[in-house]
Specification:
The protein has 199 residues and is α/β, with parallel strands linked by helices. It has one domain: DHBP synthase (Alpha-Beta Complex). It has 8 helices and 12 strands. The strands form 2 sheets. Strands 4, 5, 6, 7, 8, 11 and 12 form a 7-stranded mixed sheet that branches. The chain has a 5-stranded mixed sheet with strand order 1-10-2-3-9, with helices on one face. The mean pLDDT is 95.
Length: 199
């Protein structure tokens, strides 16, 4: 089902998520695919749709830093990064706090988290607080920035929340703090220089 990124479409997407469904949605970086992170069956469906190896863990999007603090531990440097770049295109790898989410996502002690800067997605997250949020592409292929490409390329999802074309498309930058030092795992929309400026 294809719905517009408006109040009505967000309600449809929310209902699908509550029922254990999988939703393709626009983010501030690329189109993502999401579900309730506590629903193990929905998580398995995302792996199946993407053809993703189970060893590649799924990131979680949150409505706010406060919501993410319920599932992950922040060290001092990660806290600084979150305060400066969220909502935005920086994914932090943190120690996982909540056992239920670690179990459903098959995490080994760490979780990748982000607060996205996209009004439609934030409206959805305001209702459901947390979502699995990985790029909506077949594993190994480029992510989508235009909703019109999606239905012919992937299948198995319940709702496509259509936000049109993402104009400033680029993947998020993934960072982890190791021994009080910032490690950039993938440089994306936010550049190393910007990150280093807060140290």
């Amino acid at each position: 089902m294809n719905v517009q990124c408006n109040e009505e479409g967000i309600k449809v997407a929310l209902e699908a998520i509550k029922k254990g469904g999988v939703v393709v949605l626009p983010t501030d970086t690329v189109y993502g695919i999401g579900c309730d992170p506590y629903n193990h069956e929905a998580v398995k469906t995302i792996y199946k749709i993407k053809g993703r190896e189970k060893t590649k863990l799924l990131p979680v999007l949150g409505y706010s830093k406060e919501e993410i603090e319920k599932i992950a531990f922040f060290d001092e440097l990660s806290e600084k990064i979150a305060n400066k770049f969220w909502p935005g295109a920086v994914t932090l790898i943190l120690k996982v706090k909540k056992r239920e989410i670690a179990n459903s996502l098959n995490l080994k002690g760490k979780i990748a988290v982000r607060v996205p800067n996209h009004s439609c997605l934030l409206s959805l997250l305001k209702e459901c607080k947390l979502l699995v949020g990985t790029s909506a592409n077949l594993s190994g292929l480029p992510p989508f920035k235009d909703s019109s490409e999606i239905p012919s390329k992937i299948s198995g999802y319940d709702v496509l929340l259509d936000g049109g074309k993402i104009s400033d498309s680029a993947e998020s930058t993934i960072v982890e703090v190791i021994d009080n030092k910032l490690e950039i795992i993938r440089e994306g929309k936010v550049k190393e220089k910007e990150l280093m400026s807060i140290l």
